[in-house]
Amino acid sequence: MRISTGLAVFCFGIVMAASFVSCTTGQGGQTSTSLSVSLAADKTSVLADGADAVNFTVIDNSTREDITSESVIYLLSGDGSSSQTTSSFSTDTPGSYVFYAEYSGVRSPEISITALGMDAEGITLRASKNSIYNDGGDFTVLTLTDADGHDVTDLGTFYADGKPLEDNIFSTTTGSLTPVTLSAMVGYSQVPNTVAVTATSNYQFSSRALLEEITRTNCQYCPIMQQVIAELAADSPQVVIAYNVHNTISDVYTGSYSAVSRDFSQAFSDFMLPDDSGRYTDAPKTFFNRSKDNYTASSNLTQEFRDKAVSGPKDVAIALCTESTAQTVSVEATVGSKKDFSGHIVAVLVDNGISTESSYRVMRAYYPSVEGHPQNFVTRQPVHFTAEFDLTQLNVTAVENCEVIVFVTDDADGLCETVQVARIGEKKGY
User: Fold this and answer.
1) pLDDT by residue (tens digit) across 11-31?
2) Quick one: 209-428 is in which CATH superfamily?
């Protein structure tokens, strides 16, 4: 299903990729990865009833083509031997099963599928948070794990005060002094524990900040800022969401399908440094919350950025749901607000799989643009925003290496109000 105009939630399951030989392309001798193979599963667990099945897909990451019919999928045994299987797997024996794929001599990394027995003994229900904002946009994510710690959420049916939910998320516009009881079943068996979640209008939004860094390969001072970004990335939870924009002389954006990312890189430089004659080549350039004031590279900036983020505005929040196919990454953002204002929503696709000194969250594309989509925000009226990225134009290393960042700016000062980030296939509330 294509996400472009409506509300939808997807998770694509497991995707793992292997990248191998580099070669010279026909585009000016630029280097690109010749073959990168992903094995994807449409879910991470099945019932061990002999009928419930997981379906596999093999993807050539260089072309984004579905190559399942041309590949061989193997089931790996505990002794290291393997046997050929099909693109659909079912079993009546509970346990953990490991698979990999081969295509043109290239082997993908392994993925694990859990086959669960018909009762819910040993399964634990968890909620991503125990309090949500009752504007209908925020939600808590429900997950199930078995006794060995395997995620078996795919097998669950979820309930709020006994009423079935459409998915493994709970959201409401109703507030109550009594917490809502969330429960789950696997097949016809009740999961032993329940979770209590409070829905309230007194919920406090988190304060998060955006850090955008113009960098390039072989940059003299960029390592200083990359260390700052690495320290911010180690925070849990992250209060500063950072990503890198390689400038137009960086070799990161060369190779097949590089034109889109290069154009966005230039557009970002035009937007943030309109009066700088060296805006396409200079680095590092560090921008905080979309302020066009550039910070001088310094290792002392880590704590300064943390302090600024924690003390920042708490009027706007973002929830994210992402999904992928072989050709696209799609995201739905829900923006909740405690104030009325006009602003913009921006989505950024970033790639963590690039082999370079500035490889963390490298920008691949913006949606719909660097400036974003204009939007009016009203108190307690969540705004739904969808974005889709065409992977065939972006030369990402592999889908599982990507993340989506979404942020909101206020037209009054142009600054970022808040930001959120999600992995592919992740659901995340305010």
Assistant:
1) 334 555 554 333 322 222 233
2) Immunoglobulins (2.60.40.10)
